[in-house]
From TrEMBL:
Domain spans labelled GFO/IDH/MocA-like oxidoreductase: 167-274
Protein name: Oxidoreductase domain protein
Signal peptide feature range: none
Keyword DNA repair: no
Taxonomy of the source species: Bacteria, Bacillati, Cyanobacteriota, Cyanophyceae, Oscillatoriophycideae
PANTHER family: BILIVERDIN REDUCTASE A, GFO_IDH_MOCA-LIKE OXIDOREDUCTASE N-TERMINAL DOMAIN-CONTAINING PROTEIN
EC id: 1.1.1.18
One of the record's GO molecular function terms: nucleotide binding
Native source species: Planktothrix agardhii (strain NIVA-CYA 126/8)
Amino acid sequence: MLVLLRRWKNKSQLPITNYQLPITCSPFPILMINIAIFGAGRWGVHLIRNFHQHPNSKVVAIADSNPDRLQTAKKRFQLPDDIILTTDGSTIWNLPNIDAVAIATPAATHFALISAALEQGYHVFTEKPLTLSVTKSLELCELAQQKQLQLFVDHTYLFHPAVERGKTVIESGKLGELRYGYATRTHLEPVRQDVDALWDLAIHDIVILNSWLGEKPIQVKATGTVWLQPASGLSDLVIANLTYPSGFEAFLHLCWLNPDKQRRLAVVGSQGTLIFDELQSESPLTIQQGYFDVIDNSWKSAGINREVIEIEPREPLAQVCDNFLNSIQNHQPSPISSGWVGAELVNILCGLSESLKQGGQPIHLL
C-alpha cells in the first residue's frame, strides 16, 4: 500500500486542493518580478518567451549547460545585452534582485534546485513532475510554507481552454451517468533517459481526468514493456489503470516509440462521449452523442450526433505563467497548480511505478 505521507497532527486542516498560506499584506503591489530560468531546452525556451513577454516579469538570468542554447535563446527572443547567461547554475544564487526562479531541467534535478531556491528566498515555478518522490515533494511544500513562498508546478493542461471547457460540460450532466475513460498518448521520440514513459507522459492525462471528475484515484495498476534501454529498465510502453472513489475507471496507453502520434482522451457516459483530441486543431473538443433505446427486448442506438464544443483561443502556457505571477503578487498559492497539487500527482505516479515493478499488482492510494 502506497500512502501519501503527512507530518501534521491534524490532516484535515491541510487538504491539498484547498490549502492556503497566511496572507502577508504588502503596502505596495509588485510591479515587476525578476526571474532566473534554469534550462533553455525544448520546454525552457517557451518559459523564456512567456516570462520575457509578460508585462509583470523580467528575465534577468538564464542557466543552461549548453552555451549554444543560451545564445540561440538570446538571439531568438532578442533578449537585452544585460541579461546574464551562464553555464554554471550555481552562480544564480549569488545574483542580486532575483524574486523567483523557473526550472525546466530533468526531473531528477528538481529537488536540489527547488530546495536551494526556496532556501535563498525565491518563489519557484517548476516543470512537472514536482520531484520523483512523495516524501521529497512534501518536504518542498513544507519548506515553501515555512518560508511563505510560492511553489508552483507547471501542469499546463489545467490551463488549457479545452480542458477548462470540458470540465463545465461534465459538470452540466450532459454525458449522463459517467461510465469509464480512456486516453492514448503516443509519439516517435523524444525518448527520455532519466524517467520512463509513465513518468514522462501519464501525468498529463491524469491531471485532466482528476480535474474533470473532481476526484483522485484510490487504486492504480500498470504494466510496461522495455525495448530500447534494457540496462536501465525504463519502460517504452505502459498500460495503466486508474480507479476512482465513484467507481469510474480510466485506461491509459503511453508509448514514445510509436510513429502513430496520438493525443486523445475521452470520458464515456450513458448519453455520450466527451473527446479531447489535441491533434484536431480546428475542433479539439467534441461530444459524440448517442444512447440506447430498448425496442422488442433488444438495444437500438439512438440520438447519434457529433457536437463541436467551442473554446476560447488562448495559449495555455501564457495562462500558466500569468497565474504564477499572480500568486506571487497576491501572496496566495495557486488553487489550480500549487506544490500541494503537484505532490498529490507524484503520489499517483509513485503508486503506478510500484505496480509496474510488481508486474501489474493493484496499489491502493490513501
